[in-house]
Amino acid sequence: RSYRNSTKRKGQASATTEDQPISKQLKGSLTKCLPQMMYGFGDAKEPLSESIDCLESLVFERMAVLVARCVENGTASAANQDKVKISAEDLLFEIRKDKRKHNRCQELLRLNEEIKQ
Predict the structure, then answer these.
(1) Distance (Å, rounded) from C-alpha 6 to C-alpha 32?
(2) How many CB atoms lie within 10 A of CB 101?
(3) Staple 23 to which of 60, 66, 77, 91, CB 3.0 to 4.6 Å?
(4) Are 70 and 86 in contact (CB under 8 A)?
(5) Half-sphere exposure at residue 27, Cβ-oriented, CA atoms within 13 angstroms
(6) pTM score > 0.90 for this model?
């Protein structure tokens, strides 16, 4: 009768992944590529896991701020109020003052279009 313990009862709160913040859902998703990028920028070949975790949290924090700014400014198309879709133009608009990032992003988008053709 162990199946009874595993089933959810009415009124019990379920801790699904949808209830967790996005940073917790994505935690560990960059652990393979971040060490390679860190090494490419002059860090040790095998950086400390604390360094990777710190950098990963900074990346998620920065992305969350950027996405929030896109949504705040109303540039994102909101066909459904629950789900907001952010386009490349929305992100380009938000990084327009940083010319280096803006130019690099435009170049990557152009290369992506060339690859698609």
Answers:
(1) 34
(2) 14
(3) 60
(4) yes
(5) 11
(6) no
